[in-house]
Structures are given as structure tokens and as C-alpha cells.
Amino acid sequence: MNQMYSELVCPVGKFPLRQDSDMLICTNCGAGFKIIDSIPDLLIEDIILPAGIKDISKLKCFSSVL
Ligand SMILES: [Zn+2]
After folding, report:
1. Measured in Å, how far apart are the chain's first and last C-alpha atoms?
2. Could you read off the pLDDT of 35-59 as tens digits, one per residue?
3. Which pLDDT belongs to residue 1?
4. What is the domain extent for residue 13?
5. Ion ligand 1 — residues with CB under 5 Å?
6. Could you tell me the distance, in angstroms and rounded to a whole number, from the CA of residue 12 to the centre of ligand 1?
7. What is the CA angle 63-12-28, rounded to 5?
8. Does the pLDDT at position 3 exceed 70?
9. Integer-rounded Cα radius of gyration of the chain
10. CATH number of residue 20's parent domain
């Protein structure tokens, strides 16, 4: 994993992220975040939900926080 992104965590559940080409993927909930011009977009509004998840409140990280 790129050292640059190793400190970043999922904005929903604060779990570590792994890099997958031009995306960062949460190791807990599977949510994706695009890396645009080397800058990860960790805004909740721009989250890429994993397959089968229709709403952010259904993410594993979401329920881990509550
Ligand atoms: Zn997560």
C-alpha cells in the first residue's frame, strides 16, 4: 500500500483503508473512495457503496459506530 494513504481511515467507521488501483476501499465495510489526482476523496457524499448496499446506513461501518 502506498505510504501516502496508510494513515487514512474510513470516514464512516474509522477502519483502515486499502488501496485498489485508483480507489481506497474500507477493510471493514467495503465502501470505496476515489483517488483523484493523488488526493483521496473521503467525503461521505462521494462514497461508493459496495454491491448490494443501497444506503450508507446499511454499511457495516455505520452500525459499528452506533
Ligand atoms: Zn468503512
Report:
1. 29
2. 999 999 999 999 999 999 999 999 9
3. 45
4. 3-52
5. 10, 12-13, 26, 28-29, 31, 61
6. 5
7. 70
8. no
9. 11
10. 2.20.25
Counted domains in the chain: 1
- Asked if the structure places residue 34 within a domain, the reply is yes
Distance of CA 42 to the CA centre of its chain: 7
Q: Is 30 left (phi over 0), alpha (psi -120 to 50) or beta?
A: left
Residue 13 Cα to ligand 1 middle (Å): 5
Residue with cell 465502501: 31
**Among 59, 52, 65, 53, which residue's Cα sits nearest to residue 14?**
65
Contact 9, 25 (CB under 8 A): no
